[in-house]
Amino acid sequence: SAFYFDVRKDSLYCDAIGSTRRRSSRTALDAIFTRVVIWLAPVLCFTMEEAWTTRFGDKDNSVHLQLFPETPSSWANDALVAKWSRIRDLRRVVTGALEIERRNKTIGASLEAAPTLYLERPEDAALFEGLNLSEIAITSAAEVRIQAAPEDAFRLQDVAGAGVSFAKASGEKCARCWMILEEVGHQPHHPDLCHRCSGVVG
């Protein structure tokens, strides 16, 4: 989906080539690509053929010669779908708050932000356990708090129990991943990079 690719672009572009997160992202994208292109091939004949040959580079291996791939039944997970549906709703509150700041010229890109997401329901906060809100919202930093949002926080009428306060990210911009972090400027060999990028370039 566009959402998955949007969130995972940072890992694909900036993580180390052999990192587990980057490799798992590529595996997921490969499974998605293969299925979507083969499924749509009977309807979008030329477009899917072009996508297939561009991806695999073999003009003799047509998408129209492929069998529909088997999809494991274990991939169907209603609880996971419900979880990420709610996370995406909460993310809309964050992106809505950032859009106002972008429109007001306070920021030019979401990576310039470090928002705080206030959640009134503990079960909503539990959704982010083991997850990084800044990664999901494509910001340089982000915080989740279990409490009522301040009066001036941004809210969406159709997303109950959530509000967002905006703050600008603190630090310097990494020349490689473009995140604004306090750690930039403290790498002896790469003063313009963050810890992660400095480690990747060596």
Based on the model shown, name its key terms:
7 helices; 202 residues; globular; 5 strands; single chain; 44% helix; mainly alpha
Describe the overall structure.
The chain has 202 residues and is mainly alpha-helical. Helix content is 44%, strand content 8%. It has seven helices and five strands, in the order ααααβααββββα. It has helices spanning 2-14, 20-40, 45-56, 78-103, 122-126, 133-137, 195-201; strands at 116-119, 143-146, 162-165, 172-173, 180-181. The strands form two sheets. It has a three-stranded mixed β-sheet. Strands 4-5 form a two-stranded antiparallel sheet. Helix 1 crosses helix 2 (20-40). It is globular and about 60 Å long. The chain starts with a helix and ends with a helix. The mean pLDDT is 96.
